[in-house]
Design goal:
Blueprint: H1 15-31, H2 40-56, H3 59-66, H4 78-102, H5 111-121, H6 132-163, H7 165-178, H8 194-207, E1 216-217, E2 222-224, E3 227-229, E4 234-235, H9 240-243, H10 286-303, E5 304-308, E6 321-322, E7 326-327, E8 333-337
Antiparallel strand pairs: 1-4, 2-3, 5-8, 6-7
């Protein structure tokens, strides 16, 4: 991944580059397109995503999330969220129309093509879930979830590495021992890089990206710990309760890659690591997100040393919003070529 910098390695805000890169990955998967970073469509979509991420983490939206019945009766920022979603759905509707005109059922190019082929196969099934409406909703969800969560995690991760230069140095040492400087990182490298793998996991654990997870609904009546939960009940689960569990992670409020390392320095899996939720309805893009986080982070640290503008001890890593999503504070840094 190329990060623009001038010869003096001047300070920059990494937000834009860290959202464009994963955005183009998910766009390639969903509708087989790679945007130029100056493309106005890309800038508009990123703007809507960024605005929604901020709005969804506001106290008012958290009230709406817990009590959705009030949405139809009160004005508020939730209406702007819905407007932004409609904008994105309209954009993807145009992409669907383009795909319908050029579809080759024997050569699907992307997610939209595969969905359209399935729609054709089930066109006589009155119970089918493969409809244009569901295609638009799913495509918008994939785009939003596949862009905002990964970019925010990367942005927060770089901030934590600025705060903890000793961790950054150990990752760079492992990168140069395993990968070197003459080839790009690949996923096969992760098995030989336990410390880097632990750092990626610890970033996700520490930032607690989605504290109350995505809204779920029970599909049948459930009895759980003496509680009766009727079919259709909306459920909010606390991922914080496991990611910051003192039972599993000593000093959970401390950023420490050792939480995922055994005494021999090998990577240690944990059943409490639920950054992608758990169960059958866990994050659809978990595999893709894991690849992106590892490859983007190692690529950056293979080529650049991260230099903060202030003393590391003065860097504040407290989230500025942590309602729906944990948003890191704005910051700048210098990318110094290795």
């Amino acid at each position: 991944m190329e990060i623009p910098y001038d010869p003096a390695s001047s300070p920059c805000d990494p937000t834009f580059i860290l959202v464009c890169a994963p955005c183009n990955v998910i766009c390639s998967v969903v509708f087989h397109h790679h945007f130029d970073y100056k493309d106005q469509d890309l800038l508009n979509l990123i703007g809507k995503l960024d605005e929604n991420a901020s709005l969804l983490s506001s106290p008012w939206i958290q009230v709406c999330n817990a009590f959705p019945v009030i949405l139809d009766y009160f004005p508020g920022s939730h209406k702007k969220v819905l407007e932004n979603v409609k904008y994105m759905e309209a954009f993807f509707l145009e992409k669907v129309k383009e795909h319908q005109d050029t579809l080759d059922i024997n050569n699907p190019r992307d997610f939209i093509d595969c969905f359209l082929i399935k729609m054709e196969q089930e066109k006589h099934n009155k119970q089918t879930e493969f409809t244009t409406e569901n295609l638009l909703i799913t495509t918008t969800d994939l785009f939003g979830a596949g862009t905002e969560t990964t970019s925010t995690t990367l942005r927060y991760g770089l901030l934590l590495l600025l705060k903890h230069p000793e961790v950054r140095d150990k990752v760079q040492k492992e990168i140069h021992q395993v990968i070197g400087s003459h080839r790009d990182p690949c996923m096969q490298d992760r098995a030989n890089m336990p410390y880097t793998d632990a750092v990626v996991h610890e970033i996700q654990r520490y930032i607690d990206l989605l504290p109350t997870n995505m809204l779920h609904s029970v599909t049948r009546d459930v009895n759980f710990r003496n509680y009766h939960i009727p079919k259709g009940t909306a459920i909010l689960t606390s991922l914080t309760s496991v990611l910051h569990s003192e039972k599993e992670f000593p000093n959970p409020k401390t950023f420490d890659p050792g939480h995922f390392l055994d005494k021999s320095g090998n990577f240690r899996k944990s059943d409490y690591f639920m950054a992608f939720s758990a169960g059958k309805r866990s994050c659809l893009g978990e595999g893709l997100a894991r690849m992106e986080l590892f490859l983007f982070l190692t690529s950056i640290l293979q080529n650049f040393t991260l230099k903060p503008l202030v003393d590391p001890k003065d860097i504040d890593v407290t989230a500025v919003n942590n309602g729906f999503i944990s948003v890191p504070p704005p910051y700048q840094l210098c990318f110094i070529p290795v």
